[in-house]
Amino acid sequence: MTIRSIISTVLSDYTREKERAFAKNPLAKLLRDGFQENVEDDVLGDGIVTSGSPGQGQWATVPWIGVFDEEISTSATRDFYIVYLFSSDMKSVYVSLNQGWTFFKDTYGHNAKKQAKYVVKHFQNILTTKNNRMTTEPIHLLQPTESNDLVAGYERCNIFSIKYETNHLPTNEQMENDLINMIACLKDVKKVLVNSHNVAESIEYILSVNERSDSLSSDSAEKLPKNYQLLN
Fold first, then answer.
1. Can you give the residue ranges of the Type IV methyl-directed restriction enzyme EcoKMcrB subunit DNA-binding domain (predicted)?
2. Sequence-distant (≥ 6) Cβ neighbours of residue 119 within 8 angstroms
3. Hey, what domains does the chain have and what are their CATH numbers?
4. How many CB atoms lie within 10 A of CB 86?
5. DSSP H or E run through 218
6. Nearest Cα to Cα of residue 226 among 193, 187, 182, 190
7. pLDDT in tens, 139-198
């Protein structure tokens, strides 16, 4: 299978499969293992692994497929990663450079939203590998009548994304190129971390620099360590 065929299958079948048993469901397995089993190494590159989630014991409101740099994280609960986030109505999917909302919620409590926003703005400002297919516009995964804190966390932790509409999916070649470019952005995130083996330390540093600003000021940029200047 190709990236396009995996994404298309989830978008077309997920709503129907949610009415069926979760255990041993083939679509659930496709979400978990489809990328790892089918996407070529020349697309993913060294040190990149994938895993997905149709839910934990029951179908998720928003299923996802994550693409992780093993040196940073292999979990969607913390640190930085790429994730395909399917909207709850299955009318679209976003390829998002994202960060773990659970980490912010557990670490910063009632300040989590503000702190996550600081980190989002930081990387929106310094990642020059972002191309014109990627947008910093908000992503929308839930319907107006729906509420889900974890999904809302995915939305607020999005750094930038590419949106695919179910009825207008691009070619598989374009989707492969989009993923390759997103992985390049993730690798540039890794380059500028204070400590790629302890991302929480890097986040703490970013927050200390941006404590009273929603985006980088010229003064705060001057305070960044040398490795933060690599992408400027």
1. 10-190
2. 99, 203, 206, 207
3. 3-229 (3.30.920.90)
4. 26
5. helix 218-223
6. 193
7. 999 999 999 999 999 999 999 999 999 999 999 999 999 999 999 999 999 998 988 888
